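Hey all, sorry for the wall of text incoming. These are the two entities for the joint prediction.
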Amino acid sequence: MHPLNWAIVLAYVAYVLVDGVRRSKDTDTVEGYFLANKSLPWWAVGLSVMATQLSAVTMIGTTGQGATDGLRFVQFYFGLPIAMVILGVTLVPFLHGSKVYTAYEYLEGRFDAKTRSLTSFLFLMSRGMSCGTIIAAPAVVFSAVFGWDLTWSVALIGIPTVIYTMMGGVQAVTWADVKQMVLIVVALVSVVVVLLVKMPVSPDEALHIAGATGRLKTFDFSFNLTDTYTFWSGILGGTFLMLSYFGTDQSQVQRYLTARSVDEARSSLLMSAYWKIPLQALVLLVGVLVFVYYQFQQPPLLFNPDHEAEVVAQQGARYDALQERYSATFTLREDAARVAADSDGASAEAAMGTFLEREAEIQQIRGEALALAGEVTGESSRDVNYIIPRFVLSELPIGLSGLFIAGVMAAAMSSIASELNSLSTASVIDFYRRWYKPKASETHYLRVSKITTAFWGVFACFVATYAATLGSLIEVVNRFGSFFYGSILGVFLLAMIPGTGAAGAFFGLLAGMGCVAAVAFGAPEVSFLWHNVVGALTVVVVGMALSLGSLGGGSDDGAAEGAATGP
Amino acid sequence: MTADDAPFQRAEPADEPPRRSPPAFRTTLIRVLLVQAVALVLLWVLQARYHLG
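and here's what came out:
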């Protein structure tokens, strides 16, 4: 990469670090460190909410998914505005008004200490692991693209993030998120502009090519429980997922607990409701335009440079043969695309038919190359994650490549920082202060909070190093996390139902996770977005049934307590 | 305050931007629904115009 690009990346890292450390001056109490004394404006919190959700996986993986699969992934977010509105009128006023540090703290007042501890523990487990994978995803790609040792990539992303999160607490995290979000959007828009300028065909013709290959098919109204990205799974499963994520995941709840008032907290969430779908469509559109750009500029047969090098070294002859077929077919496809773009009527249609035939051949050759790479390396390819980084480094002008890489780092760091901050909060408030040292000085808790942030940072970097080498573990961890989301949401829903009690919540939570585990292992087979619906409904039904039974027996103290403190 | 005093006033600290109140929830809600409707219609038009099949 050009020195100017490196200068941009390093300047970004240095700025975030210095700015974050500067914020530490304002955090000398636990409330200041974890909640910024509830002093942050709604727009800053709103941008922080969005930056936390948008990780480097979005910048690298989702753009790549746009290139290979088109816009249909945007359906995943259709439930988000609905969820934000529901949370705005239910959970947000409740949590913000109840003076808690963590969402789980509220569950003790409503149910009992063990329900609070179990939900908080589940959060720590799933978030602790996922934080590692969020570092691992860009670190693996950086290592392959720049030829670095993985440890250095993890360190470059992880260490500055841990330092500014540890020193500056939630203030540093939020204000860094604001700048990182701006950087991310600028980087994405710049890439779109460059793509449109460099494209040898008009935007209308580019969209015709994308549409002909199915990349602009956004809506799928089929109702199939095993298909992840449909309109219905997005609207129903997505709503439950987003309710769980924004309503019960401490990494998000803590963002809006820092807002000045309930109204400001609501407005911060509604900012995501406004912008998430357009932003996600922009992210996918970058991928779609890269796909069209590569119709006129031959891309590598394999995008993962590590796999490409290994295949060349071990199966050079087979790879050369594939490369020869690929180049010949690419030229034919490019010619057909140009004719389709330049002509009208019947000749354009005929050329588009030829183009689609050649495109199918190209996909077959790429499939053979990926299979060869899998055979040689023994790993699944994940080639999709390398499409955008290779494009950025080889096709973008000097300076803009650096800006985009800085944008990827910003996306990674903003998510990691929020998660470390929330992991520290849950550890200190829900466990250390609750069970180990309930009465200590502010200085003591502040010191422990900083140490805990550092601990989770080191833990996440450690997980990242190993998760990256055990490729499939990342998928396992993601699915592991989806076990809990719906069930935890179920506990919060149960908390809003008058008369439900502690035993119902605790055993309902266990039953919810059991049901999600059953459907996750295929009895019956259901796509993972629906796991959230299954988990939440099971907890509510089992919890209500047990609470009614207990009330009949008159033995559930938690029910009486819950009725007194419910919303 | 006179015009001459202006240069000697303390500037707003960079960390504390001027406070802006959020719009009322109902107003925001209507705007959210409108923006989503526009976004979905645009995506639908994109699919209807360019998608083959």
